[in-house]
């Protein structure tokens, strides 16, 4: 990892050189221990898998951070957005004080393990997604990820700017067979589609992004991302894995109801 000493500071560079905890970089979806609490870095804006987004300066490279040991909010782990350089400084300072093997990074439990170990205060488990509305993940600072499930097993996803009206999103998430649906090539945002299956409270689906054409006329094949997770009464939590880049992440989708006239 190339470290910008003017942005992070020489002391942090020296710490990162000496500490094996970070392997000279942040590890996504790994649990670090700092001040006796676990810290999990979900993803950052400059991660390779953030398709459709231009790289930003490190001063704007925000990351999604989870705190599993803090009190839950509405049944979900506390989640913040923090600068990547600030996270590195914080973890480096903690690692300097805590140099025991038990505090090394360890793999983050999957959503299946999380559900198994959930306490009585967790949201109610469900056995199918809800079809009368949309699901929204707001873990990115600038963009929202949206899902819509259909009773025939179809699932459609789109990524749009924060604050987009749900009724406008709904137009982008209609099936291509719907005459009022927008074509994937004309729909705003990053569009992908696939099929889902449910086993008990577990859900699995593969989303494939629509192909695109570069400025030179070259067709760029859309990436495929695998999802697996748990269905709750008003939310879905999934682990994702990009087949193209091998990037892995975790997303929390909350249900957003639509007017009755907008439901199938």
Weakly predicted, low-confidence segments? 1-24, 100-104, 115-120, 183-188
CATH class of the largest domain: Mainly Beta
Number of strands: 15
State the distance separating the first and last CA atoms: 49 Å
Mean pLDDT across residues: 75
Global outline: globular
Give the count of structural domains: 2
Structural class: alpha+beta
What is the CATH architecture assignment of the largest domain? Beta Barrel
Q: Short description, anyone?
A:
The protein is of the alpha+beta class. Helix content is 15%, strand content 36%. The strands form three sheets. An eight-stranded antiparallel barrel has the order 6-7-8-9-10-13-14-15. A five-stranded antiparallel β-sheet has the order 4-3-2-1-5, with helices on one face.
Blueprint (SSEs and pairs):
Layout: H1 5-8, H2 10-18, E1 30-34, E2 37-44, E3 62-67, E4 78-83, H3 84-97, E5 106-107, H4 111-116, E6 133-137, E7 143-149, E8 154-161, H5 166-172, E9 190-199, E10 202-209, E11 212-213, E12 219-220, E13 224-231, E14 235-242, E15 248-257
Antiparallel strand pairs: 1-2, 1-5, 2-3, 3-4, 6-7, 6-15, 7-8, 8-9, 9-10, 10-13, 11-12, 13-14, 14-15
Structure description:
This protein has 264 residues and is of the alpha+beta class. The chain folds into 2 domains: 8-108, no CATH class; 133-262, Lipocalin, CATH 2.40.128. It has 5 helices and 15 strands. An 8-stranded antiparallel beta barrel has the order 6-7-8-9-10-13-14-15. Strand 7 (143-149) and strand 8 form a beta hairpin. The longest helix has 14 residues, at 84-97.
Descriptive terms for the model:
single chain; 264 residues; alpha+beta; Lipocalin; 2 domains; 8-stranded antiparallel β-barrel; disordered N terminus
């Amino acid at each position: 990892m190339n470290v910008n000493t003017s942005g992070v500071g020489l002391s942090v560079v020296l710490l990162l050189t000496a500490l094996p905890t970070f392997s000279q970089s942040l590890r996504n979806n790994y649990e670090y221990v700092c001040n006796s609490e676990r810290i999990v870095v979900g993803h950052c804006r400059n991660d390779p898998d953030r398709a459709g987004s231009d790289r930003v300066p490190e001063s704007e490279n925000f990351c999604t951070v989870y705190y599993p040991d803090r009190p839950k909010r509405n049944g979900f782990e506390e989640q913040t957005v923090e600068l990547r350089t600030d996270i590195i400084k914080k973890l480096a300072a903690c690692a300097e004080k805590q140099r025991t093997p038990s505090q090394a990074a360890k793999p983050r439990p999957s959503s299946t393990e999380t559900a198994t170990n959930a306490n009585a205060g967790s949201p109610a488990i469900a056995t199918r997604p809800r079809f009368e509305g949309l699901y929204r993940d707001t873990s990115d600072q600038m963009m929202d990820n949206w899902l819509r499930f259909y009773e025939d097993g179809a699932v459609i996803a789109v990524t749009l700017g924060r604050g987009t009206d749900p009724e406008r999103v709904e137009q982008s998430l209609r099936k291509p067979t719907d005459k009022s649906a927008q074509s994937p090539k004309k729909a705003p945002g990053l569009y992908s589609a696939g099929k889902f299956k449910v086993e008990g409270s577990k859900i699995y689906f593969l989303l494939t992004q629509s192909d695109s054409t570069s400025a030179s006329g070259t067709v760029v094949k859309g990436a495929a991302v695998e999802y697996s997770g748990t269905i709750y009464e008003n939310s879905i939590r999934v682990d994702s894995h990009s087949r193209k880049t091998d990037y892995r992440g975790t997303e929390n989708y909350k249900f957003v109801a639509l007017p009755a006239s907008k439901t199938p």
